[in-house]
């Protein structure tokens, strides 16, 4: 398969470790899907499909290694696809041992047989001297006396594996926050905090929807203080606030970690958006809804970003906004829905000004000047302070400036990908009750704005210069984890 690619300039690999940096790669994969995931197949038939995808991933891994990458991340579901039942996913699963067993499947293939996928991944890592991160399915027998044990007698887990450059299994992670459609998998009993050390940094790993919750994502970044998060995902873009490149780059900035995100490419399901992100902003990213072929990203990252002189300072997210005493009167208040949540909005009726909007305990404040407001571009300032309850339950505090889909205010909050209006300046802040806030700036065409904005220590998200492209949204996306309901455990069938 043809592989398109994006490179960023970096020094020779022989310098990388000496400079405290390394070469990272992620691969956005257009997965070969099963014709019918409702019909059971034999293990041999399952392996035929997986081999088709493995052949594509192999080409990407070899190309990344040729360019000097130390590690490559591939997507969630990248080896067999999605939307299986418990029964139909089973032939694709392997019994994946804990990394503590000290196993190189490529060199010792019979030790935990049958394991054709583990063996092939191990050999790809070993033969190309590169760390390989992949997502696959794990199966574990369970006893009927275990109340969590399914009637079919085994657990099935959505699982990430990591092989080092010798082909050794160094990490295994079972996804804790399953998406609502993942009925084929079990939740692990407890969240797993999986980390491993390398000569080029300290790594943690989780999967897709895990990023929306406290465990294990926040724990790995805050308590374990990993340098880099590895993130296989099958992310469906949900504009205006949760497109892949937008949210993943913001999370990396908000948590102060490197973040290697490998997404699927599937235009029908609006899946695209992979990136290599640093705490200071994106280093390389890819978003293309028109293409169906894979895409390789390769660039350099700091091995230990917290030691960098450019590492972002700690932010008091409510410091500036809480000092604003009087709210300006505005008659343009109305409600609108963003991804099932009812926001309070106020229209930006002038090309320059100051406005505020409050909901519950959150007040959002905006100072702005548009460069030349286009008459068909309607912008609003929005606030949401509440529990999101669709496809997962989690507490949000969000301040956002966004372009409406049309001049009809009823369309404000609906997905939109293009705009015509640039901003000369903006400053957005909010009275957040949480310390976990992720700053997003998204331009027309679902493009990021590296280097064009900054977060001040008093909690203001401000533009550094006039925006280089028209603005889709400017957002402070807060997660108040302490207000989340308890984790929902899956009921076994």
UniProtKB/TrEMBL annotation:
<protein>
    <recommendedName>
        <fullName>CN hydrolase domain-containing protein</fullName>
    </recommendedName>
</protein>
<comment type="similarity">
    <text>Belongs to the carbon-nitrogen hydrolase superfamily. BTD/VNN family.</text>
</comment>
<dbReference type="InterPro" id="IPR043957">
    <property type="entry name" value="Vanin_C"/>
</dbReference>
<feature type="active site" description="Proton acceptor">
    <location>
        <position position="76"/>
    </location>
</feature>
<keyword id="KW-0378">Hydrolase</keyword>
<feature type="domain" description="CN hydrolase">
    <location>
        <begin position="31"/>
        <end position="317"/>
    </location>
</feature>
<feature type="active site" description="Proton donor">
    <location>
        <position position="175"/>
    </location>
</feature>
<dbReference type="Pfam" id="PF19018">
    <property type="entry name" value="Vanin_C"/>
</dbReference>
<keyword id="KW-0732">Signal</keyword>
<dbReference type="InterPro" id="IPR003010">
    <property type="entry name" value="C-N_Hydrolase"/>
</dbReference>
<keyword id="KW-0325">Glycoprotein</keyword>
<dbReference type="Pfam" id="PF00795">
    <property type="entry name" value="CN_hydrolase"/>
</dbReference>
<dbReference type="GO" id="GO:0015939">
    <property type="term" value="P:pantothenate metabolic process"/>
</dbReference>
<dbReference type="InterPro" id="IPR012101">
    <property type="entry name" value="Biotinidase-like_euk"/>
</dbReference>
<dbReference type="InterPro" id="IPR036526">
    <property type="entry name" value="C-N_Hydrolase_sf"/>
</dbReference>
<feature type="active site" description="Nucleophile">
    <location>
        <position position="208"/>
    </location>
</feature>
<dbReference type="InterPro" id="IPR040154">
    <property type="entry name" value="Biotinidase/VNN"/>
</dbReference>
<dbReference type="GO" id="GO:0017159">
    <property type="term" value="F:pantetheine hydrolase activity"/>
</dbReference>
């Amino acid at each position: 398969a043809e592989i398109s690619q994006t490179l960023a300039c970096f020094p020779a690999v022989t310098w990388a470790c000496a400079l405290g940096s390394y070469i990272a790669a992620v691969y956005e994969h257009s997965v070969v899907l099963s014709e019918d995931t409702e019909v059971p197949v034999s293990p041999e038939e399952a392996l035929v499909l997986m081999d088709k995808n493995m052949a594509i991933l192999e080409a990407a891994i070899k190309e990344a290694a040729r360019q000097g990458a130390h590690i490559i991340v591939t997507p969630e579901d990248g080896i067999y696809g999605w939307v299986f039942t418990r029964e139909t996913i089973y032939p694709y699963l392997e019994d994946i041992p804990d990394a503590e067993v000290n196993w190189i499947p490529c060199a010792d293939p019979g030790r935990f047989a049958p394991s054709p996928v583990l063996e092939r991944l191990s050999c790809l890592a070993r033969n190309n001297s590169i760390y390989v991160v992949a997502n696959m399915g794990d199966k574990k027998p369970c006893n009927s006396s275990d109340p969590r044990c399914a009637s079919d007698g085994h657990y099935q887990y959505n699982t990430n594996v990591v092989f080092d450059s010798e082909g050794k299994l160094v990490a295994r992670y079972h996804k804790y926050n399953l998406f609502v459609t993942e009925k084929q998998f079990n939740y692990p009993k407890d969240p797993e905090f999986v980390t491993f050390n390398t000569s080029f940094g300290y790594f943690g790993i989780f999967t897709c929807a895990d990023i929306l919750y406290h465990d294990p994502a926040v724990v790995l970044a805050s308590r374990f203080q990993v340098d880099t998060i590895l993130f296989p995902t099958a992310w469906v873009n949900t504009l205006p606030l949760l497109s892949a490149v937008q949210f993943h780059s913001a999370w990396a900035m908000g948590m102060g970690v490197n973040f290697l995100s490998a997404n699927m490419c599937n235009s029908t399901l609006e899946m695209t958006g992979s990136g290599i992100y640093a705490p200071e902003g994106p280093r390389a990213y890819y978003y293309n809804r028109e293409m169906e072929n894979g895409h390789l990203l390769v660039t350099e990252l700091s091995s230990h970003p917290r030691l960098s002189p450019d590492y972002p300072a700690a932010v008091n997210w409510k410091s500036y906004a809480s000092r604003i005493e009087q709210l300006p009167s505005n008659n343009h208040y109305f409600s609108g829905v963003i991804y099932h949540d009812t926001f309070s909005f106020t229209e930006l009726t002038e090309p320059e000004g100051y406005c505020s909007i409050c909901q519950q305990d959150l007040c959002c404040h905006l100072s702005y000047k548009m460069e030349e407001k286009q008459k068909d571009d309607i912008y609003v300032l929005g606030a949401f302070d509440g529990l999101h309850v669709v496809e997962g339950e989690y507490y949000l505090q969000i301040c956002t400036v966004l372009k409406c889909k049309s001049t009809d205010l009823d369309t404000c909050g609906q997905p939109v990908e293009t705009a015509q209006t640039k901003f000369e300046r903006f400053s957005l802040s909010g009275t957040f009750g949480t310390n976990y806030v992720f700053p997003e700036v998204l331009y027309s065409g679902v493009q990021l704005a590296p280097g064009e904005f900054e977060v001040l220590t008093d909690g203001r998200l401000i533009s550094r210069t006039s925006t280089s492209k028209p603005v889709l949204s400017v957002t402070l996306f807060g997660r108040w984890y302490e207000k989340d309901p308890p984790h929902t455990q899956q009921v076994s069938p």
